[in-house]
Amino acid sequence: xxxxxxxxxxxxxxxxxxxxxxxxxxxxxxxxxxxxxxxxxxxxxxxxxxxxxxxxxxxxxxxxxxxxxxxxxxxxxxxxxxxxxxxxxxxxxxxxxxxxxxxxxxxxxxxxxxxxxxxxxxxxxxxxxxxxxxxxxxxxxxxxxxxxxxxxxxxxxxxxxxxxxxxxxxxxxxxxxxxxxxxxxxxxxxxxxxxxxxxxxxxxxxxxxxxxxxxxxxxxxxxxxxxxxxxxxxxxxxxxxxxxxxxxxxxxxxxxxxxxxxxxxxxxxxxxxxxxxxxxxxxxxxxxxxxxxxxxxxxxxxxxxxxxxxxxxxxxxxxxxxxxxxxxxxxxxxxxxxxxxxxxxxxxxxxxxxxxxxxxxxxxxxxxxxxxxxxxxxxxxxxxxxxxxxxxxxxxxxxxxxxxxxxxxxxxxxxxxxxxxxxxxxxxxxxxxxxxxxxxxxxxxxxxxxxxxxxxxxxxxxxxxxxxxxxxxxxxxxxxxxxxxxxxxxxxxxxxxxxxxxxxxxxxxxxxxxxxxxxxxxxxxxxxxxxxxxxxxxxxxxxxxxxxxxxxxxxxxxxxxxxxxxxxxxxxxxxxxxxxxxxxxxxxxxxxxxxxxxxxxxxxxxxxxxxxxxxxxxxxxxxxxxxxxxxxxxxxxxxxxxxxxxxxxxxxxxxxxxxxxxxxxxxxxxxxxxxxxxxxxxxxxxxxxxxxxxxxxxxxxxxxxxxxxxxxxxxxxxxxxxxxxxxxxxxxxxxxxxxxxxxxxxxxxxxxxxxxxxxxxxxxxxxxxxxxxxxxxxxxxxxxxxxxxxxxxxxxxxxxxxxxxxxxxxxxxxxxxxxxxxxxxxxxxxxxxxxxxxxxxxxxxxxxxxxxxxxxxxxxxxxxxxxxxxxxxxxxxxxxxxxxxxxxxxxxxxxxxxxxxxxxxxxxxxxxxxxxxxxxxxxxxxxxxxxxxxxxxxxxxxxxxxxxxxxxxxxxxxxxxxxxxxxxxxxxxxxxxxxxxxxxxxxxxxxxxxxxxxxxxxxxxxxxxxxxxxxxxx
Length: 1018
Fold this sequence. Notes:
This protein is of the alpha/beta class. The protein has 35 helices and 29 strands.
């Protein structure tokens, strides 16, 4: 039988006793630590259900008293009820009704996908499958025993199936979604089914998971009554001291892909699943007794399909429960295949020795141990290995319990994992080490690192987590790590970014950013209109030697566009504009060079940004900047623009250098009154209400300057070679008109705000020869054009050019009220950072834009690297303590019917909500609406505002909306029956709901005072 498509493990996350994540899990295993502990008090009163095993019992009933367990220990994870419901758009009341296993699976799935260097949002709508192994459903036992407490939320909060379905729903995954219960082998069965789905093409990504939570002593009592429970709560697999099972819990998720797909995407691979198999014991010595022959046949068949023999196996992660019968049968089945192997013994171990039997999550616990061992090329030791059970004859079977870490050889290494279910359902897997792949990044290549979160507090935590991890990474991975962060960490509303060219600086700046995380503004993709971007192209005077050279060095797209426009310009300039700029030639200040150089820089910047997904809805250009603006707007061909700017600069360069320019702090009308009878002076630019530029003859300019000084008006000479936009430019106008004669008369494809006309070009206004000839002497009416632009609904203005000249002018022109406008300078000037393009991308992203990050990086730097996964808010708590039916609870106070079971630390979970927080509408209807929303969803009122979306942010599904509808109708009976179609389809936010109710309230003529007390929210 030929080998089938190998499956890559590309991502994982887990929580097991003594380990909050995969890194701590590996540390626990390598240190050989004990993860067991006493039963936590919030689970149940361990002493109440405990009885010590007598040393010499007189009868079976004395050895195993009914209703009692022989142990008070086990493997427990910390804070199993900690959850971040707001992150997933789940209301607190719904979260409180959910099985904690569902909550753990949601967060673990998100983190595992991020660990695969994939944004979970990128899997939304895909055929990704979810396969969950689960054995316990004790939450349902605790929640559903009291019939009077059952609400609509409890249906979706319980049931095996919901563990998988919940993940598929909240991550919008469209592939297979199912739960598997084969008892202790459930999670390895889930992996087997996921592999089959991937190999058949049913899905391209698969999440294979296992979960187990110990919420009651029921199974402990069962194990004790069956004689399977270890008194000290510890599994001692294959040890002479083995005396039964110690129970454990945990949750884990693997992200699986076909190996060929993962390698094509250069995705990091932990290990490779070569083959899996499943079978059943059939009729054996008892339904709970293992079957040696079934285990042996399964292992043999899987090895055969994987194309390996016992000689190829480096180590085996056994089921290894630590029961005498189970260990003996497993050693027999495995030894039948390994006893004849050549070479040394096969390493043998079981993770159950570290923290116990995780039941539904046991198989995936052993699988992740094996995956990490292959990844680190070291097999952790097995606890209790120093005292191997001599009756198992492990040396004779060529099996060896690992007393110390086993270093794996170079090359491909194979390993095997077994997991056997109590009812006879067996699973086995063969794995191999991942193929070696080296993807070196460029040394000192800069990047921009992005971090996003659901709240400022979470932003701080995630910034610190990333900073700590980056300090341990190789220096040549910086750009790759930044690119990965852009792909994986950039979709949430609170954002921070750092641009850097070395890892120590990056880590330090991330820590600084964490100190100011509370200042981050929310980027709201909900009700806000789509971003509307304008490009404003800088004019002459912004040039300087080596201008925007950092763009050429660090931004491949800019370099490519700059090279291309340089080739177009060269026939008209007689030299390379690129070399002129990058070599720092002072010739760049002369008109014949400055104008084509500014055009080239502006055009390349704009083209690179458009290629990066930052495309303008409007453009504006100041003087020479209008040529690049016209190109971008489609009003001018690039070849024509290159010819014209070169000719324009040459014509102006040939003029006498007897002119100058003067910036005057006075309004245009007042300045024009001073220019009467001064024929060699003209109004050159109107940049704002009190910002005007005059140009012309130097002697007349000096006289004007003296006159202004006597009036106390501030004026400043500009460093220029000629008096641009003045009567002194008249001699070149006709020559330039002839140069433009063959231009097609066409208007822009996107709105262009003309600084010649001072307004947006209309359909009858073309940028033809007359326009460009007039532009030479006409004043630059920037203030009028920019004011019209700002009034057009623009949300972001990016100044395109080598210096921030227009940005401060725009800041003074921005209206104080109305829609905010973000201003960005593409390149602030000579002292800009060496990685300014990366900084700009970060600024634009933090301001709500969505750049195409790939364009910022060279091919060698677009390699996925693992980053620490998201750090969730753990302040939410919802738990029920396990106790026998009908008995008073000893370890927790009684919970009155109807009370919320969700508790947020430090929050008062009263029945009503206080008045709206400051900044929100304080009228009685708004207050009442928020009261009802908080009551139905169980939200903290301090965190509910008008902009919050009912579905995405507050977790209002159809059930919650129906409950809200009923409560509104009860509180406001004058409104009558509310149309459900309006509530479901038309009301996106809390503010929308308030507005809708206000309209109906007015329409119904309701004049009675609105209830604002708890009585109105029942």
